Amino acid sequence: MTTYLCPVDGVRAAVDSAPWCCPECGSPWDLEFTAAPVPLKSLGQRVNSLWRYEEALPLPTKAVSLGEGRTPLVPMTPTVCAKLDFLMPTLSFKDRGAVMLAELALRLGPERVHRVVADSSGNAGTAVAAYCARAGLSCTVYVPESTSPKKTEQIRAHGARLKRVQGDREATARAARAAADEEGTFYASHVYNPYFLHGTKTYVYELWEDLGGSLPEAIAVPVGNGTLLLGASLAINELHAHGLIADRPQLIAVQAEAVSPLAAAFHAGEDDLGTEFLATLKPPAPTLAEGIAIPRPPRARQILRAVRESGGTFLTVTEDRIRVAQMELASRGLFVESTGVACWAAVGEWTDRTVAVPLCGAGAKTGLAI
Ligand SMILES: Cc1ncc(COP(=O)(O)O)c(C=O)c1O
Ligand SMILES: [Zn+2]
């Protein structure tokens, strides 16, 4: 098995015995793993799920699969296409990462993993609950009290224990981490565990395959903790390193104006979300985009660097724009949850370059935001 690597101080730890974060500095782990080139021409013969990109995956098996991935790419305008990532087994893009974490927990074995815990504003928890059910793993999901009832219902339906935590998303994460420190517990964290990012990166491998071995000029991504963004960045780097794409697309990171610490840091030229900088920001306001309402993302430094290195930028969207975008998409036949419309709200009208927009959570999860 591969090794965890701390991006801050270079500490390494074996995957089968490591704590959930770097023991020296508390940073989320990266994975010491080099993807091999994926052969575009032979993909047609492969399994119809994200496991088809086996050369690029750190876990080359598919015991836990629910057929996730291979979501449709639909032209919306002459320059904008939408990738329907809400058409996943649990109705959001989080399946891409959750399947990796469940597969990893299974491979670590019953002596090491007695139960899995996760924390989430809803979609990641739902996905982890589903893939744990598929893997036969006991699972507990911590969610903020305010999480949509449809998401909590789904988590329970998959047989996971649900713990509602009073307070914000950070309070939920703290409660899960306290549980994660207990013996025999695997913390299936979409934020701290880098296997999740090696799952979300298949979003870009699919784009690349469906566009015949190329990528659009820009890839828009909603950013809370940045798991889709960092996965996309990993894939772009891998494809570029292997000479499988000529140019790197710009990453266009999208946040809700109400909770946009990374957008503010990016435009202020900051390379991290330091305490001093955070103190200068307006406090977060309520937003319809609950899935990206993250005031202090632990991977802030990596996210800011990835967007800068791509030549992209950060955009923010207002609550009104989110409402209108959800109606606009629904009127074109696509019912998407309010977090999942943020990118369309930000770049749907662009005409100056080709751009892919993820519609990454199903409308049925939250209903209409009016
Ligand atoms: C539908 C949807 N879009 C975007 C995001 C943002 O993902 P991340 O926090 O990894 O940036 C989430 C996270 O829950 C989500 O549920
Ligand atoms: Zn460290």
UniProtKB/TrEMBL annotation:
Q: Which InterPro entries match?
A: Ser/Thr_Dehydratase, Ser/Thr_deHydtase_PyrdxlP-BS, TrpB-like_PALP, TrpB-like_PALP_sf
Query: According to its UniProt record, which cofactors does this protein need?
Result: pyridoxal 5'-phosphate
- Identify one Pfam family in the record: PALP
UniProt keywords, alphabetically: Lyase, Pyridoxal phosphate
Q: Give start and end of each Tryptophan synthase beta chain-like PALP domain.
A: 64-361
Gene behind this protein? thrC
What is the protein name given in its UniProt record? Threonine synthase
Write down the PANTHER family for this protein, in alphabetical order: L-THREONINE DEHYDRATASE CATABOLIC TDCB (PTHR48078:SF6), THREONINE DEHYDRATASE, MITOCHONDRIAL-RELATED (PTHR48078)
SUPFAM superfamilies the UniProt entry points to: Tryptophan synthase beta subunit-like PLP-dependent enzymes (SSF53686)
